[in-house]
Every structure is written in structure tokens, then in C-alpha cells.
Amino acid sequence: MPAFLAPHKSGVHRVTAIALYRALLTKCRATPPPLRPSILQAVVKNSFVKNKHVTSQHVLRTAFAGGYEALNHLDAAIAGDKSKISHLKSLLSRLPAKLKTTIPRKPAPIPAAKPTANQGTALSLRPRPAFSLPSRRRIPVLVSANKIPILRFTKPQPAALSHYLKSRLVDRQKRQDRKMALEAQMEIARGEDDWDRILLAQGIADEGGNVKRGKVLWTKEVYESLGYTMNAIEAEGTKNREMAEKMVAIVDKERELAEIERKERKRLKNEERRKRKAEAVEKSEESKT
């Protein structure tokens, strides 16, 4: 391992340490009484935590040697060696109490609930007034993401917007797949209706012994499902068109306000320049007198 590389950042060191750590914990679980596996595992965990960020080669070499020696003692104790069991028991009795207790893990912090956006309010707040902007007004760009209109204010694209677009595209693809499946089923249903009409014309009874009257069509349910799916597809297209029109109006208004604010900044800048020039002239006249 290079001298300039910290041990806990070395891949070889980490693999070796993790392998020894897992081997010790596995052996601790299999130790016979009077040894207590929970105490042995606590000692192993606390020892590894204590040496987690140690950079001294001498200390690490000693720690690894002790770990492999403990592994040999545990193997012998599991095999039934009474002397090794008593040796481990005496070692545990001499260890400090804090080394034999596992520190309970801190509970994961509960993430703060993000405020939910009210549907239909995001676009109604645009364009924002100048006093609420953190900097100069940025004119948004109207972008078509697979025929879904969005307003891009900054780059990179926010993760929430990516999730929104993905969910919209998944729903659209499901509708298209359902439409294609129903169109295929429609052909089968038409064939069934034709066959029923042939049977009815021949006066052939159905499986229940009744002559079919031709009142219920196979295509009825398919027509209804296909109509519902087509309405959903058309509704999405209408929604996208209406949203695009609103966004175009927002972009135009943002561009208009940006031009007004640019002229206002220019006016204030000119006034400040004239003020500084007047002060300089006044000072020069005072110096002459």
C-alpha cells in the first residue's frame, strides 16, 4: 500500500479488514457456553470501530495479528477446547465494560415533509414580481419534452421535473399499448359476432340449449373500452395544448417585464452617472475658489 494513501481508503486494506471482521462475528455466534456470543460480538465491533481511522502501520499490524489470534482461539473453543474457552472467559473478564456493550444505533432522522404543491397554482404565480426575484429576471424557455410542454428556468433539470415527465410518459405509453391491444381484440370480436349471426341464421342452439337472439355483441365491451382509451388520449393532447398556450403567454409576459426592468436599470444607472458627474464638477469648482 502506498505510504501517501490512508489505510481506510485502500481497497486491499478494506477487503482484508472486512473479511476478518465477518469471520470473527461468524465465529462469535457459534461459541459454546459459558461464552456469551453477544458480548464477544460487541468486543469485535467496538475494537474495529476504535481502529477504523488509525493510520499507524505498527498499530494496524498489531491489531490484525490480534484479530487472527482471536480467530484461532474461537476456532479451538468451538471445537470444544476447554483451555481456550477458559482463556477467552478470563480475557473477557479483564476487558472494560464499555468495550463489552454495543452502542445503540442512532435512529435515522425523519425527513421533513416537503410542502405539497397545490394543483394549478404554479403557473398562476408566474411571472413573479421583481421584488421577489433573487437576481435579474431570467426569461424561461418553452421546451417540448416528447410533446409535453415545460418551462425551463435553470439547468440542470430538477429531479422532481424528471420524475414528473417520466410518469407522464409511462402513462401515455400504457394508453397507447392498451389502444393497440383493444384494436386487435376488436378484430377478434367482429369475427365472433359474424359467427354468431351465422349460427343464428341457421337456428343452431348455443351450449345452454337456447337459440341465440343476437342481442349481446362481442364488440360492445371492446368498443366501450376503446372509446374510453381514445378519450383519455385526446384529453391528454388537449391538456398539453392548453398548457402550451398558457406557457407561451408566460414567456411573452416574462420577456416584456425583463425589457421593462432592463430599461429601469439603465435609467437608474444613467441617473447615478449624472449624479457622480455633477458631484465631480461641484468639487472642482470648490477647489478653484
TrEMBL record:
UniProt cross-references to InterPro entries, sorted A to Z: Complex1_LYR_dom, Cup1-like_N
Any Pfam family hit: Complex1_LYR
Disordered: annotated segments: 265-289
Complex 1 LYR protein domain: residues covered: 17-72
UniProt protein name: Complex 1 LYR protein domain-containing protein
Organism: Aureobasidium melanogenum
